[in-house]
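PT: before anyone asks, these are the final sequences, not the draft ones from last week. 331 residues across everything. Please model them as a single complex and drop the result in this thread when it's through.
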Amino acid sequence: AKKFVFAKRFHGLPQHDNFSLEVEELPELKTGDILCEALYLSVDPYMRPYSLGWPLGTTMKGGQVAKVIDSKNDKFPIGSLLVGYLGWRTHTVINPDIKSKNFMEEITLLPELGQLCPSVGLGAVGMPGNSAYFGFLEICKPKPNDVVVVSGAAGAVGSLVGQIAKIKGCRVIGFAGTNDKVKWLEDELGFDRAFNYKECDLKSSLKEAAPNGVDCYFDNVGGPLSVAVRSHMNDFGRISVCGAISLYNDTTPTLVPCVEPAMVFKQLKMEGFLIHRWTGRFQEGMTQMSTWIQEGKIKIKETHTEGFENMPQAFIDMLKGGNTGKAIVKA
Ligand code: NDP
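LR: through. Structure below.
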C-alpha cells in the first residue's frame, strides 16, 4: 500500500516537497475490519488551512470513495462502495463500527447513485454538495427574485450554489477565474451573468449585473472581491461565508478596505459555517442533491486527474484554479 505524508510545512502555494510518498505495511484483518482500496480521492481547499494543526509525518487527510476488497464485517461485504475520510492512501484496514469522535473519520456506505459515477460521493452528493445545500439555504434564506452573488462560482461548491439559487427562483451572478469558466456558468449552468474576476472591474460589473443591489452573497474566496460584493448589498442582505481561498496561501496578509459602515447602515447579516454543523441532516442534503441531478435540474462537472501518485499535483492545480467543478483523483 502507498500513502502520502505531510513532509514539510507549506509556505505560500504548496510544492511537491511538502509531501512524501511512502510504502505502508497493512495489518492482518481482525473481526469487524475491512480492507478497502481507493477508487477516487478528493483534493479540497481545506487541506491547506487545516494543515496548520497537523504534525509533520501525518498521513495527508482527505476523503475517498473506496471499494471493500476483503472483509470481516457483514455490514461492509466485499465489493461494497464506501465514502470516508481515509486519507491520501491507496489501501486502508479499518473497523468502520468503531465510531470516532471526529466526524472527519466517519465511514459510510455510498448511497444508491443510479447512473452517476461513484466519485460524486466526494462532490455534488457529498461534502461539497451539502456545503452548497445547507450553507446557502440555511444562512442566505433565499427568496424568489432575490439577487444572489456567488464567488468561486465554477468550483465544486460554488457551481452548485448558483444552480440551487436558480431552482429557488433567484437571479444569479457568478465570479470565476477564467473566461471558459464564465462561459460554462452562463451557457450551461444557467447563471444570469458571470464575470472573470481577474479581468473585470469589480465595481462596474456588479453595478451592471445587479443595478438594484445584491440580496445574498455566498462567499468562497474572501479578499477584495468580497469587499466589493459586500459594498453592493441591499438592506438586510445575507452573507454566507463558506471559505476564503484567496487568502489561504498568503504569506504576507494584506489589509483590504473595510465595509463596516455598509454592515451597519444596510443591516447586513454575515455568518460563517463549517459543514459539520449539519452532520445530522447529511442524508437529507445528499438525497435532495442527487434527486436534482437525476432530474436534470443540477448539472455537475468534475475535473479528474489520473493516478494516485499525482495527488500533490492535483491539489496544487486545484488551488491555482485548474479545476472546473469538483477536483478528483482517480487512483
Ligand atoms: P473549488 O472547487 O472552488 O476549487 C478551488 C477554486 O478556488 C479554484 O478552482 C479557483 O477557481 C479558486 N481560487 C483559487 N485562488 C483564488 C483566488 N485568489 N481568488 C479567488 N478564487 C480563487 O473548491 P471547493 O468548492 O471545494 O471550495 C470552495 C471554498 O469553499 C473554499 O474556500 C473552501 O475552503 C470552502 N469550503 C468550506 C466548507 C465549509 O464547511 N465551510 C466546506 C467545503 C468547502 P478560479 O479559477 O475561479 O480562481
